[in-house]
TrEMBL record:
Gene3D superfamilies in the cross-refs: N-terminal domain of the delta subunit of the F1F0-ATP synthase
Keywords assigned: ATP synthesis, Cell membrane, CF(1), Hydrogen ion transport, Ion transport, Membrane, Transport
Subcellular location: Cell membrane; Membrane
Parts of the chain that traverse the membrane: none
GO molecular function: proton-transporting ATP synthase activity, rotational mechanism
InterPro entries the UniProt entry points to: ATP_synth_OSCP/delta_N_sf (IPR026015), ATPase_OSCP/dsu (IPR000711)
Protein name per the record: ATP synthase subunit delta
Any one of the GO CC terms: plasma membrane
NCBIfam families in alphabetical order: ATP_synt_delta (TIGR01145)
Taxonomic superkingdom: Bacteria
Function: F(1)F(0) ATP synthase produces ATP from ADP in the presence of a proton or sodium gradient. F-type ATPases consist of two structural domains, F(1) containing the extramembraneous catalytic core and F(0) containing the membrane proton channel, linked together by a central stalk and a peripheral stalk. During catalysis, ATP synthesis in the catalytic domain of F(1) is coupled via a rotary mechanism of the central stalk subunits to proton translocation.
Protein family: Belongs to the ATPase delta chain family.
Primary localization: membrane
Species annotation: Enterococcus phoeniculicola ATCC BAA-412
């Protein structure tokens, strides 16, 4: 039975986190994964290329050698395992899982705050503080996404939870109550 991408991402990300914890390299591996994510953002097809069966193994190996030359130790070994199992196209999901576990371990949470207009730095900092307290974390880091359709207020998505404080949602509730 072939595993779906999300299950693979969770398993590999958890395995790397557990290994990094055992070797006391949580922060180092985390920083390396962030740099790897940047590579994948700059070259969005890299994972597909390294997992593509149409390419000759030596062609993929040349690309992989250039990629792993920037890493060493645990990170390099991890990338080799992922490559050997043709899972390089799932690497971003693995990074997401590691980042989630890292954040949990550090008492950090990251998410997205959707607002009708951009938040100022002060508003963003206040919201991050409130969300961290509300969800029981030491610190929250939120990126701001603008969506005028929510009319006003904020919708926060973090830790697989949605906190909808938008005016659009409140108007929707009022409309349903009036129709009853």
């Amino acid at each position: 039975m072939k595993l779906d991408k999300y299950t693979v991402g969770k398993r590999y990300g958890k395995a790397l986190f557990d290994l990094a914890m055992e070797e006391q390299q949580l922060e180092d591996i985390y920083q390396q994964l962030l740099s790897l994510r940047e590579v994948y953002e700059e070259l969005p097809d890299l994972g597909n290329i390294l997992s593509d069966t149409r390419l000759e193994p030596y062609e993929k190996r040349e690309i992989m050698d250039k990629l792993v030359s920037h890493y060493q130790g645990t990170m390099k070994n991890f990338l080799e395992v992922v490559f050997n199992y043709s899972r390089m196209d799932d690497l971003l999901l693995m990074i997401d899982e590691y980042e989630y576990r890292y954040g949990e371990h550090q008492g950090l949470i990251s998410g997205v705050a959707t607002t009708a207009i951009p938040l100022s730095e002060e508003q963003k900092a206040q919201l991050e503080e409130k969300i961290a307290q509300f969800l029981g974390y030491k610190k929250a880091t939120l990126s701001n996404k603008v969506d005028p359709s929510i009319i006003g207020g904020v919708v926060v998505e973090a830790n697989h939870q949605v906190i909808d404080g938008s005016i659009g949602k409140q108007l929707e509730k009022i409309t349903r109550l009036i129709k009853k």
